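Comment on the following before class.
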Amino acid sequence: MLVIGRKPGEYVVINNNIKVKVVKSNDGDLRLAIDAPREIKIIRGEIYEKEVLQEAK
């Protein structure tokens, strides 16, 4: 796992086609903008974990 610090307006690029940008940061509250091709599935962590638990049953 890579852990880096980013300020609002800064971003990282993954695999040359996914851009993750910090768009807001207030008192520990963080918002991200993710720009990726439509075929890339993007899912929130809590939903992902719920799906994984359901598949394990």
Notes: The first strand starts at residue 11 and ends at 14. The helical segments are 45-56.
